[in-house]
Amino acid sequence: MEIAGINVFYIVPIMVFGPMVFFVLFKAFGIGSLFSLSDEQKELQRKHRQLKSALDAETAKSARYKKPKLSAAKIIGQGFLYIPFLLAIGYFSSYPSYEFAPENTAQIKLSLTLWGERKIPCRTRTAEELKELPSNMRKAKSCSRERHPVTVTFDLDGKTVFDESASPAGLRDDGPSSFYRTFMVPAGNHELVVNIYNSDDAIPTEKFSQVIALTSGQAIALTHTAGEGIVIH
Fold first, then answer.
1. Which terminus of the chain faces fewer neighbouring Cβ atoms within 10 Å, N or C?
2. pLDDT per residue over 133-177, tens digit each?
3. Could you report the per-residue pLDDT of 218-231, keeping only the tens digit for each?
4. Which pLDDT does position 102 carry in this prediction?
5. How far is Cα 184 from Cα 181, in angstroms, rounded to an integer?
6. Which domains does the chain have, with CATH numbers?
7. Whole-prediction pTM
């Protein structure tokens, strides 16, 4: 006789003696320990349950907490405390009044960025020198980087009001020299004369002269643009 293609002769002993064999192995050889938790794991489970209980209790406590409502008296009291601050902010936002410039005056800004002449003039390399250089460095002219300081004088209505020198910027003194100064003048016509010295020569390399009419509160700026010289904005 067969069950599911297996002879009953093999199935019956397994069903009868199999549980007995498993019980003996479970008790005698400690197979049961493979399916039970260690003391350390049990302690971790206990701590986890305690922590979860504490968190649940804290959550329930927070859910029962209600934010207290402010009474009408407290709201009115806070309003009275805020009023002085609001008045102070409103006052200082309008007073004292700020004047950009005194009445009947104008402003002249001198804002120049100038390049000094090279201390060593550029020279043309010979054909032999060019051959000795790498192909990416074969430039016809050789120029030093160091430049002269620049001096600027500014005459206003025939009087020198500005006379300063500025060294070139950069670690190798190869950058531009910068100047910035503001002058307050009465409104009206003014003669402006600017002299630029970018070398050791006593003769200015650039000169600007112009008569300009300034109205009360007007502000102009004198800047320098390569190719155009001094420009008024």
1. N
2. 888 787 888 778 899 999 999 999 999 999 999 999 988 888 999
3. 999 999 988 889 99
4. 79
5. 10
6. 2-61 (no CATH), 105-119+148-232 (2.60.40)
7. 0.55
